[in-house]
C-alpha cells in the first residue's frame, strides 16, 4: 500500500474533520452533528448520513451525472460499513457489533437524537478512492466531539434540552468497531490492492470489503463489468482481511498519539 | 415483473461506446412494502437498480451491440423478502427471453444469518430479524460471481459456508429458470 498522510481538524466549523493523502489521491472529510428527530423505523437510534462528492478538478469524467452516481455508490458502501442496519432497515448496529453504536446518539426516545453527517470530498483521484474515503472518515469520526446534552423536565412537565457548551464535557464517538473498506481488484488472473487511477483502468472487477480491526468481514460490495470466479473471490476477501487490521493499527497509532 | 426493451440507439449526450449498455430501472408499487417516506422508497429503488445492472452487465455479451442500449424495467408488485435476488433472476430470464445473447443466465439468492443459523431465501420477517445478510448473483455454469453484497459481521467460516450455500442455491435456481424458458419457447412454437 502507498503511504498515507493524514491531517486532523482541517475544517474549523466542522465537529471533526480529516484530510488524507494516499499517493496523489486527496480526500477531505468533514463531520457535522446536529440535533434532529430519529427515524420512525428506529426510534431509539441516532442517524447517520454519508455523502461523497467528487471535485470536477479530480478528473473531467466526474462532471455531471457519472460523478453523482459513483459518489452515491461509494457513500452507500461506506454507510453500510458504519451502520449495517442503515439503508436496508431492520437489524440494528449494536447487535451486529460493527460500525458505530447509533443508540448512543439518542437524546430522547422517539423525539430527539444526534444526526451525524459525514461529507467527503474527493479533491484528486489517483485510485483507491474508497479506501481513502473510508480511512479519512474513520479519522474524522474519531476527531469528532459531540457536545453534552441533558434532558431537563421543567415545572410544567415538559422536557427541555440543555446544551453544555464547554469543550471539556464534550464526548467522542467510539470508533473501535468501525471497519475500513479495502478494495481488492482483479487484473488478469491476479488479485491486487491499492491501484492508481491508471492501473484501475486495467482491472476487470473490484471488490470493496469492509474489514474491522479483528479482520472480520463487515460488508462487501462489488464493482466492475466482469464476473469473479468464486475461488478468486475468496482470495480477494482473504487479502483484504489480512490488510485491514494492519492499516487499522497504523491509523490508530497516529490517532491516539 | 420485468420487461426488456431494445436494442435502441444510445443517446448522443452519453457519448460514444463501442460496447452496449444496460439501462436498469426498478420501481416498487406503492403497496409493495411498508415504507415511511417517498424519499426512502426512491433510495431503495436507486440501490436496487444499481445492484441489478451490476449483476447483469457481466452476463450479457454487450460487445455485440455497440452504441446500443437495452432498457430493463422492473416492477416489484409485492415485496416479500429477498427482493433484490428475485429481481436479478427475473431480469436475467427476461433478457434471455428477449433473445439478448448472454454468456449464461444469472441467478441470485439471498442468505441471512439468523441466531447462528444460515437461512436461504429469507421471508420479510426473517430478513428483518437477521444479524447479517449476503446477496450473491452468479452465472452458475461457470461459477462466476457477478454481484455480491454482504452486510453485518461475518466470521471466517460463516462467510465461506454462506457463500457455498448461496452458490448451491444459484445452481438450483438456474436449472429451474432454464426449464421455464424452454417450456415457454415450446409453448410459443406450438401456438404458432
UniProtKB/TrEMBL annotation, chain A:
GO terms for molecular function: mRNA 3'-UTR AU-rich region binding. It is found in: Cytoplasm; Nucleus, Nucleolus. CDD domains: RNase_PH_RRP42 (cd11367). The keyword rRNA processing does not apply. Residues 1-147, 179-242 form the Exoribonuclease phosphorolytic domain. Pfam families: RNase_PH, RNase_PH_C. GO terms for biological process: exonucleolytic trimming to generate mature 3'-end of 5.8S rRNA from tricistronic rRNA transcript (SSU-rRNA, 5.8S rRNA, LSU-rRNA); nuclear mRNA surveillance; nuclear polyadenylation-dependent rRNA catabolic process; rRNA catabolic process; TRAMP-dependent tRNA surveillance pathway; U1 snRNA 3'-end processing; U4 snRNA 3'-end processing; U5 snRNA 3'-end processing. It comes from the Eukaryota. Signal peptide: none annotated. InterPro entries: ExoRNase_PH_dom1, ExoRNase_PH_dom2, ExoRNase_PH_dom2_sf, Exosome_comp_Rrp42_subfam, PNPase/RNase_PH_dom_sf, Ribosomal_Su5_D2-typ_SF. Belongs to the RNase PH family. This is Ribosomal RNA-processing protein 42. It comes from Edaphochlamys debaryana.
UniProtKB/TrEMBL annotation, chain B:
Residues 1-101, 104-167 form the Exoribonuclease phosphorolytic domain. Keywords: Cytoplasm, Exosome, Nucleus, RNA-binding, rRNA processing. Its main location: cytoplasm. GO terms for biological process: nuclear mRNA surveillance; poly(A)-dependent snoRNA 3'-end processing; rRNA catabolic process; rRNA processing; U4 snRNA 3'-end processing. GO terms for molecular function: RNA binding. It comes from the Eukaryota. Transmembrane segments: none annotated. GO terms for cellular component: cytoplasmic exosome (RNase complex); nuclear exosome (RNase complex); nucleolus. Coiled coil: none annotated. It is found in: Cytoplasm; Nucleus. Belongs to the RNase PH family. This is Uncharacterized protein. The lineage of its organism: Eukaryota, Viridiplantae, Chlorophyta, core chlorophytes, Chlorophyceae.
Amino acid at each position: 500500500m502507498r503511504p498515507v498522510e493524514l491531517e486532523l481538524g482541517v475544517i474549523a466549523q466542522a465537529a471533526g474533520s480529516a484530510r488524507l493523502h494516499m499517493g496523489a489521491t486527496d480526500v477531505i472529510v468533514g463531520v457535522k452533528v446536529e440535533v434532529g428527530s430519529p427515524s420512525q423505523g428506529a426510534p431509539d437510534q441516532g442517524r447517520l448520513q454519508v455523502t461523497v462528492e467528487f471535485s470536477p478538478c479530480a478528473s473531467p469524467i466526474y462532471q455531471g451525472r457519472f460523478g453523482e452516481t459513483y459518489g452515491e455508490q461509494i457513500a452507500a458502501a461506506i454507510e453500510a460499513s458504519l451502520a449495517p442496519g442503515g439503508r436496508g432497515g431492520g437489524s440494528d448496529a449494536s447487535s451486529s457489533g460493527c460500525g458505530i453504536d447509533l443508540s448512543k446518539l439518542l437524546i430522547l426516545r422517539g423525539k430527539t437524537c444526534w444526526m451525524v453527517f459525514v461529507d467527503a470530498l474527493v479533491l484528486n483521484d489517483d485510485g483507491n478512492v474508497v479506501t481513502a474515503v473510508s480511512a479519512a472518515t474513520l479519522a474524522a469520526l474519531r476527531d469528532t466531539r459531540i457536545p453534552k446534552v441533558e434532558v431537563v423536565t421543567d415545572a410544567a412537565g415538559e422536557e427541555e434540552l440543555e446544551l453544555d457548551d464547554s469543550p471539556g464535557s464534550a464526548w467522542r464517538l467510539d470508533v473501535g468497531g468501525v471497519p475500513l473498506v479495502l478494495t481488492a481488484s482483479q487484473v488478469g488472473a491476479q488479485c491486487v490492492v491499492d491501484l492508481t487511477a491508471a492501473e484501475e483502468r486495467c482491472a476487470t472487477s473490484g471488490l470493496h470489503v469492509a474489514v474491522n480491526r479483528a479482520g472480520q468481514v463487515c460488508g462487501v460490495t462489488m464493482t466492475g463489468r466482469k464476473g469473479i470466479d468464486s475461488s478468486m473471490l475468496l482470495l480477494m476477501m482473504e487479502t483484504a482481511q489480512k490488510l485491514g487490521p494492519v492499516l487499522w493499527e497504523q491509523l490508530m497509532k497516529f490517532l491516539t498519539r | 415483473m420485468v420487461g426488456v426493451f431494445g436494442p435502441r440507439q444510445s443517446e448522443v449526450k452519453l457519448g460514444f461506446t463501442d460496447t452496449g449498455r444496460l439501462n436498469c430501472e426498478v420501481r416498487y408499487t406503492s403497496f409493495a412494502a411498508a415504507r415511511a417516506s417517498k424519499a426512502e422508497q426512491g433510495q431503495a429503488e436507486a440501490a436496487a437498480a444499481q445492484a441489478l445492472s451490476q449483476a447483469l452487465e457481466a452476463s450479457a455479451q454487450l460487445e455485440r451491440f455497440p452504441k446500443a442500449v437495452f432498457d430493463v424495467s422492473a416492477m416489484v408488485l409485492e415485496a416479500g423478502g429477498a427482493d433484490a435476488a428475485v429481481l436479478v433472476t427475473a431480469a436475467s430470464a427476461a433478457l434471455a427471453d428477449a433473445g439478448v445473447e448472454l454468456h449464461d443466465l444469472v441467478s441470485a439468492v439471498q442468505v441471512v444469518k439468523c441466531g447462528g443459523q444460515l437461512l436461504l431465501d429469507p421471508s420479510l420477517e426473517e430478513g428483518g430479524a437477521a444479524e447479517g445478510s449476503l446477496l450473491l448473483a452468479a452465472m452458475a455454469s461457470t461459477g462466476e460471481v457477478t454481484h455480491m453484497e454482504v452486510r453485518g459481521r461475518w466470521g471466517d467460516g460463516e462467510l465461506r459456508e454462506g457463500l457455498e450455500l448461496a452458490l448451491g442455491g444459484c445452481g438450483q435456481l438456474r436449472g429451474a429458470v432454464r426449464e421455464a424458458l424452454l417450456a415457454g419457447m415450446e409453448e410459443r412454437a406450438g401456438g404458432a
